[in-house]
Amino acid sequence: MRMYITLSFKGFGQNRDAVEQLCSLVQRAGWEDFCFLRDAENYQKTFDSPQALMSRSREEITKSDALLLDMTEGPTGRAIEAGIAYALGKKVIVIMKNGTVIKDTVRGIADAVVEYNFIEDIISPLNKLLKQWA
Q1: Contact predicate 1/66, CB 8 Å
Q2: What are the beta bridge partners of residue 112?
Q3: Which of 42, 67, 93, 130 meets the CB 3.0–4.6 Å disulfide criterion with 4?
Q4: Rounded distance, CA 17 to CA 119, Å?
Q5: Is the pLDDT of residue 15 over 70?
Q6: Mind listing the pLDDT tens digit for each residue in 56-99?
Q7: Residue-wise DSSP of 26-38
Q8: Domain of 128: which CATH number?
Q9: Where does 1-66 have alpha helices with state H?
Q10: Any residues with CB less than 8 A from the CB of 42 and at least 6 apart, and which?
């Protein structure tokens, strides 16, 4: 099953290590990973218009089975992708560091909320979700 991973754009690859780590953890949990920031944008702004960006994002979400959104740093512009996934009937998985507070609206669209102490802690819950939903 394919997981669409959404993260905020932070400069030109400033969060590349965090992106690569999260994608690796998703793979280790057994999912096929797709990260828009890495795979469509190549860690840079590549779209001429916001409409083109969101159209491509919707296209990739449509091809995916689930969307992963890390809410540890709070809501971002990428949270709109979670809304698209929800509207398309895709599974939405929210991950967040223990102690993070999220709004009920985020919980309302989430099929699963995974809290972690260390980011590596997400592997087992993601693997269980994969087995449950496959």
Answers
A1: yes
A2: 93
A3: 67
A4: 13
A5: yes
A6: 999 999 999 999 999 988 777 778 999 999 999 999 999 999 99
A7: HHHTTPEEEEIII
A8: 3.40.50.450
A9: 16-28, 50-63
A10: none
Q: What is the pTM of this model?
A: 0.93
Structural domain range at position 74? 2-133
Cβ proximity of 29 and 122 under 8 Å: yes
Q: Look up residue 68 and give its two tokens.
A: 């992963």
Q: Average per-residue pLDDT in the chain? A: 93
Residue 36 and residue 95: Cα distance in Å, rounded?
17
The amino acid at 108 = G
How big is the CA angle at 58 (ends 1 and 78), to the nearest 5 degrees? 95
Cα(127)–Cα(13) distance, rounded to whole angstroms?
A: 28
User: Please, which residues bridge with residue 32 across strands?
Assistant: 2
